[in-house]
Design a protein that fits this description.
heterodimer, A: about 260 residues, alpha/beta, Rossmann fold, six-stranded mixed sheet, 10 strands, B: about 290 residues, four-stranded antiparallel sheet, three-stranded parallel sheet, about 35% helix
Amino acid sequence: MAASDAPALEARGLTKRFGRRGLFGGGAPVTAVDRVTLGVSRGETLGIVGESGSGKSTIARMMVGLLAPDEGEVALAGAEIDVRSHKGRKVLRHRVQFVFQDPAGAFNPRRTIGEAIEAPLIGLLGRPRAERRERVAELLEQVGLRPDHAARFPHAFSGGQLQRVGIARALAAEPGIVALDEPVSALDVSVQAQILALLRKLREERGLTMIFVSHDLAVVEALCDRVAVMRRGRIIEEGPCREVLSKPCEGYTRALLDAARGVAA
Amino acid sequence: MGESGSGKSVAALSLTRLTASPPGVITAGAVALDGEDLLAAPFERLRAARGGRVAYVFQDPSTTLNPLMRVGDQIAEAVSAHRDAAGAKDRAKDLMAAVELPEPHRLQNAFPHELSGGQRQRVGIAIALADDPDVLVADEPTTALDATTQATVLKLFASLRKERGAALIFVSHDFGVIEELSERVAVMYAGEIVEEGPTQSVLAAPRHPYTARLLACAPKLGEPDRALDAIEGAPPPIDDRPKGCAFAPRCRLAIDDCRAGPIALADLGEGRAARCIRTEEVAHGRF
């Protein structure tokens, strides 16, 4: 396969088991993700949906190198990356960033948000101080905040504002790909709409590739090009988002849709 | 219905003086339960009404249940708080069946951590039903649950209301849930009711710009091309509300009269009301 045809990021047969080893061990490990192969093309927004415990967050975390898989590989633009090594994960971090679900828990309460956004500029890009300050201001404006917000601490922000900071921090490393784990599910509807508008804008302006993990089918339909439906660690249905959500092939997808529409039989 | 900080939970809890005090102080108003003012009632009367005539189901069952007590005993405890302790165990088992918990014989001996989120919330509902309340107040009871579990719990609320004839006050931030379950809706913003009326007509044709904008920015399944026009800005801090309409700073229809002073909840007929002086514009889709 030519490099240009290869998915921007691909999971190849990823498996993750959460063991019950150690002091209270004894039971069999739980397989959270079971041999999942899943790719996202350049500029595409991929939705991963499923109920809690389906493994959707686990697969996203493995794809960005936050979690080491037990089996399988991650490929970046067709080139396999050794995500079990420090070096491999570092390569991945330069290109792929992550936005966490709970914005309040994703920031160090004792650091200003300017410092939080600056961290990838130091650690990953090694930019000089003056340039960093300018870039932080620029990033804050891009996500709809003010440059003077940089001096404030996380507790001074609302949930929606902090999620904007989370997105600014993810963008700081200038990644081609951003994975977002339920980025709007802790937010109010009106704030959610602001964040979705921001994501749509970033995608248009920067051609950002996105992996969007969510349990909310309406949000996924509004944002994603393609969707993968997960159940018990496996992908049971995958395809163009609108097609899958309007004409699902699998009974489970249909049940999720019915529940979301509030017509559970 | 309202977003976080709009005052919906505080309003619901204040019905039986359950808001934490301090810091919460009810400074004005009355709560009439069959004509008796609960806010003025002596504590013993209030205590009897709590859980007896007005019962609550809370948002997160994993924090409201006692983790060290078997769920059957927790339901029986609620029963014996209002009724004879003698038949409490049997009634607990009946209640578990009423909230459609599977195998009550086995599950009554389970601890909360052994149950799923949906089952735990059913235990919470069983406790609320212990003394056949006239009014059931449910504060975001399905927010912590998965969509499929949420759907089944909502169905349970609908059928309990029908079978037992209790009134239901359902607090939620989710229009979809409100639409499915309620006949009437009150929309709250910055501590006030801004719109009220029959659910169907309010959701189909909102008259307050906040309701209209909120509905317009919610994604809807099957309509991926909705513009999701976000509402700029944020609600005012609750201790620094503007002199006039609280929504005016974010409202595209706001005029000087909106900012001049408090806006009254105006009767619009057909059981509808809105705290807005520009409802005509909203009705014509200009918001």
